[in-house]
Amino acid sequence: DIDIISDTGELLRRPNAWTYSGITSVSPNSGQHGTIVEITGIALFAGSSNISEVRLGGTVATILSRNTSKIKVLAFFEDVLSDQLGSVRILASNGQIVERTNAWTYKPVGRISAITPNEGQEGTVVNIHGTNILGY
Questions:
Q1: Nearest to 93, CA basis, from 39, 44, 57, 59
Q2: Residue among 109, 39, 25 nearest 74 (CA)
Q3: What digits encode the pLDDT tens for the residues 76-110?
Q4: pTM score, two decimals?
Q5: Which of 26, 66, 107, 120 stands the most exposed, by the fewest C-beta atoms within 10 Å?
């Protein structure tokens, strides 16, 4: 409801005229390309019947499923050299935005630096070296 009280004490009330929208959690709150992220909250469509897009740290994510309290997205490719903290932003089809700042961190993608040996047969032990190759 929206209540307005005048300086003379007169009360004007408009029932059901306003709905709070907000993101309550983002899980996981960090990842890289291919990470499935679940966003939960209250009235995530911001009074609309649908959403147009979701951004993780400024990058558009692929929407996998959605309802007014839970949205699942797939993080899109963002090649960063170090952790990049950013917002989770939902754009409703009516133009309203539901956003939580500092709620998502893009992590550097894995990089393979060496594979030894580079040939072999069945039973050969192969060592793979690199950074972030196990993901997050």
A1: 44
A2: 39
A3: 877 888 999 999 999 999 999 999 999 999 998 88
A4: 0.78
A5: 120
- CA pair distance 136, 133, nearest whole angstrom: 9
Write the secondary structure of the chain as one string of H (helix), E (strand) and C (coil).
CEEEECCCCCEEEECCCCCCCEEEEEECCEECCCCEEEEEEECCCCCCCCEEEEEECCEEEEEEEECCCEEEEECCCCCCCCCEEEEEEEEECCCCEEEEEEEEEECCCCEEEEEECCCCCCCCCCEEEEECCCCC
Residues 31-75 have pLDDT tens digits of 988 899 999 999 999 999 999 999 999 999 999 999 999 999 999
- Residues of 13-30 as b/e, b for ≥16 C-beta within 10 angstroms? eeeeeeeebebeebeeeb
Long-range CB pairs of 48-53, under 8 A, 24+ apart, other chains included: 48/92, 48/93, 48/94, 48/96, 49/93, 50/92, 50/93, 51/90, 51/91, 51/92, 51/93, 52/91, 52/92, 52/93, 53/90, 53/91
